[in-house]
Model the fold of this input.
Amino acid sequence: MKPNPPALHPNALQGLRVIEMGQLIAGPFAGKTLGDFGAEVIKIEAPGAGDPLRNWRLLKNGTSVWWQVSSRNKQSLALDLRTEEGQDIARRLIAEADVLIENFRPGTLEGWGMGWEQLSALNPGLVMLRISGYGQTGPYRDLPGFGAIGEAMGGLRHLTGEPGRVPVRVGVSIGDTLAALHGVIGVLTALYHRKVNGGQGQVIDVALHEAVFNVMESLIPEYSAFGAVREAAGSALPGIAPSNAYKCSDGYVLIAGNGDSIFKRLMEAIGRMDLGNAPDLANNAGRVVRVAEIDAAIEQWSLSRGVDEVLALLGTARVPAGKVYTARDIVEDPHYRARDMIVPQETRDGYTLDVPGVVPKLSATPGSLRTSAPHLGDDTDAVLAGMGLTAEQIAALRSKGVVA
Done:
């Protein structure tokens, strides 16, 4: 396998060792994010099928192309954690690690003798990220939870879709990725605390629904102050006007004309200075009252024009606007390419795949794609040899199905 080009800059997290347990989206996304910035990430997978994400959605050469993104910059150790020998190997790895990521149902690791008390005794500096549906405590802790359920309980699903119609999903597993990003924030915070406070590790407890709830803006304060229950509003931004999706002759354009001066420029661009100069529309509160009228005026103008013309006219008027991008639009957009957000990655199956670049962008220690996603167990021998096991010991473990 030809490696991807080496990083030209030092990696911010170089020297950090992460053990990733769990599967699918939330835990692995956290591991990917740390790996993108230089952490050594050893992913433990069950022998046989491995992480189910290997087989999700569209497959090329028998492997999901989603897997190629989720597991880049990682090593794969095929290890059966249901066996005592597998658990012993995992403990030895964790004893030398900085971070453990797991997204099992609460109690799973405890059942294997790898709860926080046991692991922190082995490794007092360990930072343990635990992502679950409902958190490690509370009356719902033992219920099964996926990202979709977290989105519903966190309040997001109630706001998605058109008023009066069935709530819809965002289109991606946003509950899982929000939990992962909150988890990464927790890991980096805990590592800083460990550095400046005597080397002590700690647990980061992330619940899927709480990660969603944390980004719900004024949802609860509005209910607390006014008893207001925010409802679905389609493409509009409730209480902010004008900000909506407007139909053009060949598609839709999102227009955010909700700043006071921006609104005036928008009305001038569409030839409606009667609205632009109306005293009651000079601020957002007044515009919210007449939002239906304003939206109708904007769409009357946009309907007779194509998306490109609308964007060109609004760009000249310095009004924030954009089309609704498809995957094709993203890949063909020069801005994405200029900022290295679409990058080629050579897979271990020998083909090159366009994948998302690294976010966020650091000036001195940017993230990088150092290795492509592994086949199941690609790194089993190397990891075990690094622990001091001999070839004979590894072969014995393999014969018993403990590793693969």
About this structure: The longest helix spans residues 174-196. The chain has a mean pLDDT of 95. Residues 154 and 213 are 4 Å apart (CA to CA).
